[in-house]
Design goal:
F-box-like_dom_sf, elongated, four-stranded parallel sheet, 15-stranded parallel sheet, LRR_FXL15/At3g58940/PEG3-like, 436 residues, alpha/beta, 23 strands
Length: 436
């Protein structure tokens, strides 16, 4: 390749960009030792990643602890200028974690003070869950360009007195943080530009009330192996909220006027006034009350995708037509076994009413149904869905739970009839081999 193959002919700006793309700080440090020019250029990188698994070589050595990583970070970080993206992750190699084996607050503050004029993205994984570090939070507010923040394993019982503001913070992710309701509320209020908030298995929350005028996406991803009790109530005042994802939250209180995507795992009692913009509704998990499901479906007049895979506590019949006839924009529907069992095609007096108010789902293209019992009611529901969906392309039937019985034998016969009656629809079936 001639001269162009020589790294030394690259302009400084290109060489610095290449160094900034290296996976971790150890690689950058090795490059710095190669020659005098590289030593100067590596001091100008804008991205550094310190990962204990890489830097400490995963050795079960008592001397390889947080203070060891602290020394490495301090030695290298303080030689650089203008760091924009910084990731410092300490994962103790002994399980359970060594008590008091975490970064000292003074050292973390030293790092933040060094980068506070340039830092835009920070990931800090610090195994501290023993005591609060308020000075660290104060130094974070001094990072005036900070736009993206991910904290893991911290303890935030309350915000420090007279804190600054996160003026430019757009994304805030908290993982395994112990934080109380008031501290979370204050943290959100101190972030006027916040658009994306995610809390993963954060202990200490019970009834958080959040006001965030620019918030677009909110997620509570609670792992019940970590969070010992579900959050009782989440109250949200966020007029621009587009997406909400909740796991192990008992009640949701909000005005859903701008909401387009709603993902709920485990039973949530919804207290939502209206959902006129909702396009995607995904409900799964245990302990659901059927009326909570139907309440949300009936509010979603603009739904395009409906995915119900919930385990229902008490089942009772619901007329399919009365539940879905308002979903004129629906394109994709997934009906889990418990929910499908509750659905019934209109019969008797109900059938006469439905003939006067014919259900049509003009945009429906894909149906997925999980079938637990192949009786006549099941076939009637499938027939009704096929009949009312002129644009339907695919019907997927998951019959893995079917067992040998006369009803289930007839199910396959009736399914073949549906295929003959609706030849334009691709009907696919998954079932136990013993039934084929």
């Amino acid at each position: 390749m001639g001269a162009m193959g020589n790294f030394d002919v690259l302009p400084d700006s290109i060489a610095i960009l290449i160094f900034s793309k290296l996976e971790n700080a150890q690689m950058v440090a090795q490059c710095a030792m190669a020659c005098r020019r590289w030593k100067v250029l590596t001091g100008l990188v804008d991205t550094l990643t310190f990962e204990s698994f890489n830097l400490l070589e995963k050795k079960l050595d008592k001397n390889r602890n947080a203070s060891c990583l602290e020394a490495i970070v301090t030695q290298m970080l303080l030689k650089t200028h203008g760091i924009r993206i910084l990731k410092i992750s300490y994962h103790p190699v002994v399980w359970p974690w060594i008590p008091n084996d975490y970064f000292s607050e003074a050292e973390v503050c030293n790092w933040l003070q060094h980068v506070n004029t340039s830092l835009e993205r920070l990931t800090l994984v610090d195994a501290n869950r023993a005591k609060p570090q308020p000075k660290k939070l104060l130094h974070l507010t001094e990072c005036k360009k900070l736009q993206w923040l991910n904290l893991c394993y911290g303890f935030i019982p309350e915000m420090p007195s007279s804190p600054g503001r996160f003026e430019q913070l757009v994304t805030l992710h908290l993982d395994l943080i112990f934080i109380y309701d008031n501290a979370l509320r204050s943290l959100v209020e101190l972030s006027p530009m916040l658009e994306d908030l995610k809390l993963n298995s954060c202990k200490g929350l019970r009834t958080p009330r959040l006001t965030a005028l620019k918030l677009i996406s909110l997620e509570f991803a609670n792992d019940m192996d970590v969070a010992t009790a579900p959050i009782t109530v989440v109250t949200i005042n966020a007029p621009n909220l587009v997406s909400v994802s909740l796991c192990h939250v008992e009640e949701l209180v909000m005005d859903g006027f701008s909401l387009q995507n709603l993902y709920l795992l485990w039973h949530v009692r919804p207290s939502i006034r209206e959902l006129p913009m909702l396009e995607n509704l995904h409900i799964s998990g245990e302990s659901w009350a059927l009326d909570s499901l139907t309440h949300l479906i009936r509010q979603g007049t603009s739904l395009r995708s409906l995915h119900i895979d919930a385990f229902i506590e008490r089942k009772y019949p619901i007329q399919l037509q009365s539940l879905l006839r308002h979903l004129q924009e629906l394109v994709n529907i997934h009906l889990g076994a418990d929910f499908f069992e509750c659905l019934q095609a209109a019969g008797g007096a109900g059938a006469a009413f439905m003939r006067m108010h014919t259900m049509t789902l003009p945009r429906l293209e894909i149906i997925t149904a999980v079938v637990g019992c192949g009786n006549n009611d099941c076939i009637s529901v499938l027939d009704t869905l096929l009949k009312c969906a002129p644009a339907l392309q695919t019907l997927r039937i998951d019959a893995e739970k079917l067992r040998k019985s006369m009803d289930n034998v007839m199910f396959f016969t009736n399914l073949l009839k549906l295929q003959r009656d609706y030849p334009h629809v691709k009907i696919s079936l998954v079932c136990p081999h013993i039934l084929v």
